[in-house]
Structure formats: C-alpha cells, structure tokens
Amino acid sequence: MSGFLREMAQSSLERLTQARKVESESSLWLRASETPPAPPLKLSERGFDCFAELKLRSPAAGALSTANEDLCARVQAYAEGGAAAVSVLTEPYRFGGSMAHLARASQVLAPLGVPTMRKDFLIDPYQVMEARALGAGGVLVILRMLDHGRITELLDCAAMLHMFVLLEAFDEQDIDCANTLVAERAARVEQLLLGINSRDLDTLHVVPERLTQLAQNLTVKVPRVAESGVGAPDDAVLMAKAGYQVVLVGSALMTNPAPRQLLEDLIAAGRNAK
User: Fold this and answer.
1) Distance of alpha carbon 215 from alpha carbon 195, whole angstroms
2) What 3-state class would DSSP assign to 85?
3) Do residues 161 and 191 make contact, with C-beta atoms less than 8 angstroms apart?
4) pLDDT of residue 167
5) How many angstroms separate the CA atoms of 81 and 44, rounded?
6) Is 217 helix (H, G, I), strand (E, B) or coil?
C-alpha cells in the first residue's frame, strides 16, 4: 500500500472510531435499513454514461471550488446534464469533503432520480451503513486498501442495503483481485462496477495512458469505469473505444463554469463513439 493510502486508511480509522462513540452499529443499521430507497443506478442502453463528482479539493491540484459555491445547484446541474450518478467525496482532510455534502446531494438528487455514491477510503461496513443512512445509493471500495475478507464484508453489507459498489483498481494485481471477487459473487443479486483509476499513488499525478493500457485486463462482465484523466469529449471517445461503459469525471467538471454543458458533450461523444 502506498504512503498516501496508508495515511488515508489511518484517517478513515480515526473517523470510524469517533463515529462509533456517537452511535452503535445496531442503531446505525436500523437507521440505514429504514432510510427510503435511493434511486436505482440505471446505465444507458447506448453503452456510455458519466458519473459526475462533487470534489472540493484535490491533493494534487489543490482547491477546486470556492467556499461560497452553491453545492446543491452544482449537483442539480450534474443531474440535468445527464449524470447517471453523482460521486460525493466525504474525506475531509485531503479532499475537503463531508458527510453533510453527501446528505445534501442525496436530498437534491432523489427527486431527480439520480443516485449518489459515497467516495471515501472505506475500511468497515459501518461506513457503508453511514452512506445508506444519508441517502446514498452506492459506495466506492478501494481494492488496494483491504484484504479479501474485509472487501467481502463491505460488499455483503452493500448488497443487503441494495447499494451498488464501484470496485476501484490501480494496476493488474488489483484487477486480478476484482476478477476473482466478481467470479465468486456471480450468483448473487447485486450491482458491481469495476473502475480503473489512472492516478499514480506515489506522485498523485494522473497518468491517462494507464486507462487504455489496463483496459485489456478487464475481462469480467460488469460495467467498466474509467476514473481520472477524463475531461474533454475526445477523452470520452477514447475511453468508449477502449471498452469503458462509464467515465467518472471530477476535477474537469468542478473547474468548468458550465458543468451541465460539459457533461452533455462528454456523454454525447462517448455514445457516438460506441
């Protein structure tokens, strides 16, 4: 595990420990179970979609949003632009996220039929329950951070709460892990996606060519997601031709004054390429 992921895992553990002091797991499970269902994740039959990301800060690029930005208006623009889901960063120290952002986004997007996904450095099923209790329809699971047993626990919890899971891989070893997991769980009723993140975990810089280099290793029949390094229609075309069904776009949308238009352009370019 990289130094960055170790730092994030420790931070996640500290937040988890504090949360458990406030609410027991049994109480949280009850709240999560009784939370109204999130909108289902629906991917287009045209074979290409976009997850738009609410991310106030990037460890590599710095601030991506002003302090006074209307975040509710931004996620609504994402929905109006055609986002299949909105990824919400909840990590507070390096990404400027919060659980309040997830709650607000879920509240805005539910009537529009768009699910939210908690994007964080999850290490325990308790954190999956937290996401569902705030209205999220899905979670991100970073394969590099966890052993097989803990990943299984997170997936089982998400499945019981009817949440989709984006499995995040960074290299061939992660992809092999994902292939094994998906094969083991083929008979289960759950919604899994497999994402490739092109960010270098040592430098935190994006290496876009990794997305095309690693695409050939994606053999499982679950939706493929290209993460990081997609910011223009030409990028969407390249990803669609490489076999990805979804692109997850964060920084490019956060820094664009017209995120709805950019989303529409990305989606149209990818679908035309398909």
Assistant:
1) 10
2) strand
3) no
4) 97
5) 14
6) coil
How many Å apart are CA 184 and CA 222, to the nearest integer? 13
Distance CA 94, CA 121 (A): 11
Asked whether the beta carbons of 225 and 246 are under 8 A apart, the reply is yes
Cα angle 265, 268, 269; round to 5? 85
pLDDT of residue 135: 98
Cα separation of 110 and 60, whole Å?
Answer: 31
Side chain identity at residue 33, one-letter code: S
**pLDDT for position 61:** 73
Residue 249 φ/ψ, nearest 5 degrees: -120, 125
The DSSP annotation for 110-125 comes to GGGT--EEEES---SH
One-letter amino acid at 250 equals G
Determine contact, residues 205/174, Cβ cutoff 8 Å.
Answer: no
CB 158 within 8 A of CB 191: no
Q: What pLDDT sits at residue 58?
A: 82
CA dist., res. 156 & res. 95, Å (int): 27
Interhelix angle 125-133/3-22, nearest 10 degrees: 60
Rounded distance, CA 218 to CA 220, Å? 6
Residues ≥6 apart with Cβ < 8 Å to 157: 125, 128, 129
pTM of the model: 0.96
CA distance 140 to 58: 17
* 51 close to 85: Cβ distance less than 8 angstroms: yes
Compute mean pLDDT per 10 residues along the chain, 274 residues long, and list them.
90 98 98 98 97 90 77 96 98 95 98 98 98 98 96 98 97 94 93 94 87 89 94 97 96 94 98 95
